[in-house]
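#structure-requests
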Amino acid sequence: MGYDKAVLKAFLENQLKLFPEEVAADEDEAADFLEMCMAVVVNSPEEVLEYFDEAGADITGLDSRSILDECEVFPVGDGRYLIVEG
């Protein structure tokens, strides 16, 4: 899966939200890391919630707003969200 510049930028700027230290220093490293993790990009908060539900995560008490606070969710800034499972 290819990741566009907006997705890569969102990950690079926010990676410390999920990881204790940087795992990527530039867009190439970020793309490689995201591909290795099989990170996904979804188009809405509802799709983020659906992703976690389908993955079998316990989403009890979470809604399409509160799910966005999870450390695995990175807002891209254009209505899309990157989900990276650390």
